[in-house]
């Protein structure tokens, strides 16, 4: 019974990231904006990572398949995913040449990080008690930790930074845009910023404050808040077809505004 209850927060994350990935991927297929592709990649990573975590618990964390699932979960969800989340925001506000250079650099960092995670030594005693926690301390300290901190920091700073920049532009405008009040777009960016901070804080709280037990709840809350920001921005765009969206939410922009 306890194991089933511990699966609930990860299952919520699977549901939210799956829906989120589907929405953004559908936007990319219809509009072909590169930032939508990078967001889709990161969300699919989060989706697969959480599925791997659940599969690990089902087959047994310390079993041979369980250790493989753990490494997959940690490589995608713990190390790489946040940076691709940030890559989408960078692609939204930068020129194509800059975006391509960043993607090339990020691919290299992602490959290095994944290699380090796959090669790291696992503390089997800690792995046996991973249920309901993010698995902090399960891998022995090594180069993977440096890469994880670096990629997580880059991702959170990019997502939150672009959201704050968009919100700041809304405050400066102090007027309605295309029939929608500035405050509505500002709230979308507030949700996006808050969601990014919650996701980034989940791992930090677990690692430095020992709050492992609430990691998945914080992550689920972060994804839900982030998704609400996307839905709010999308609702605005559906009501205002063809209106320019200067300083819009980094997760949703009209088709004609950004061209990649």
TrEMBL record:
The chain crosses the membrane at residues 6-25, 37-60, 72-94, 101-122, 142-165, 186-208, 214-233. Keywords: Membrane, Transmembrane, Transmembrane helix. The keyword Cell cycle does not apply. This is Histidine kinase N-terminal 7TM region domain-containing protein. It comes from Dictyobacter formicarum.
């Amino acid at each position: 019974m306890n194991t089933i209850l511990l699966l609930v927060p990860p299952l919520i994350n699977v549901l939210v990231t799956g829906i989120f990935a589907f929405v953004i991927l559908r936007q990319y297929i219809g509009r072909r904006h590169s930032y939508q592709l990078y967001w889709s990649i990161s969300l699919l990573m989060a989706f697969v990572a959480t599925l791997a975590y659940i599969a690990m618990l089902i087959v047994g964390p310390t079993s041979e398949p369980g250790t493989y699932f753990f490494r997959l979960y940690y490589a995608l969800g713990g190390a790489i995913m946040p940076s691709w989340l940030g890559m989408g925001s960078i692609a939204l506000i930068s020129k194509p040449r800059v975006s391509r250079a960043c993607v090339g650099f990020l691919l290299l960092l992602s490959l290095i990080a994944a290699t380090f995670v796959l090669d790291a030594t696992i503390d089997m005693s800690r792995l046996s008690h991973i249920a309901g926690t993010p698995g902090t301390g399960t891998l022995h300290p090594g180069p993977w930790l440096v890469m994880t901190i670096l990629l997580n920091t880059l991702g959170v700073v990019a997502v939150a930074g672009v959201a704050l920049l968009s919100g700041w532009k809304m405050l400066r405008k102090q007027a309605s845009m295309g029939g929608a009040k500035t405050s509505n777009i500002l709230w979308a960016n507030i949700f996006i910023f808050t969601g990014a901070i919650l996701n980034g804080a989940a791992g930090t709280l677990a690692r430095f404050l020992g709050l492992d037990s609430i990691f998945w709840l914080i992550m689920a809350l972060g994804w839900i808040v982030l998704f609400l920001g996307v839905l709010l921005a999308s609702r605005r765009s559906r009501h205002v077809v063809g209106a320019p969206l200067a300083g819009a939410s980094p997760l949703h922009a009209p088709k004609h505004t950004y061209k990649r």
